Amino acid sequence: xxxxxxxxxxxxxxxxxxxxxxxxxxxxxxxxxxxxxxxxxxxxxxxxxxxxxxxxxxxxxxxxxxxxxxxxxxxxxxxxxxxxxxxxxxxxxxxxxxxxxxxxxxxxxxxxxxxxxxxxxxxxxxxxxxxxxxxxxxxxxxxxxxxxxxxxxxxxxxxxxxx
Length: 163
Hints:
Blueprint: E1 10-11, E2 25-32, E3 35-41, H1 54-62, H2 78-90, H3 105-134, E4 141-148, E5 151-159
């Protein structure tokens, strides 16, 4: 017996969403019954890092993988942390409440990553809400998942259809 949970896979061919299919990727999908009604690719909405505070944007430009949640800041080389610190200071970083204490590149990197991740999540949520409001009918379930080979595999239910 297979220990994995059963996953429902939805066919996209010959559905209203077929015209929106453009290959593999992470998508939001509106599903009514067993039919995919609409698709929206998450990659259609890249985050605009110019919306960040100047010092955070400078840190991002210096070390772009800082935005990845799995980046272990404690493993970043000291020379890179020094570059991050210098970039932030030159872009107007003023420090936290204890700015009289020595400014640490590792602390700046952590603060910048937290700001970037929070801003990216909020921006993605805004686009997701827009998809739900404009595309997904009230009687459709909305899922986040993956498309490939004209199939949609849901990962997470975002909104249950209104009855």
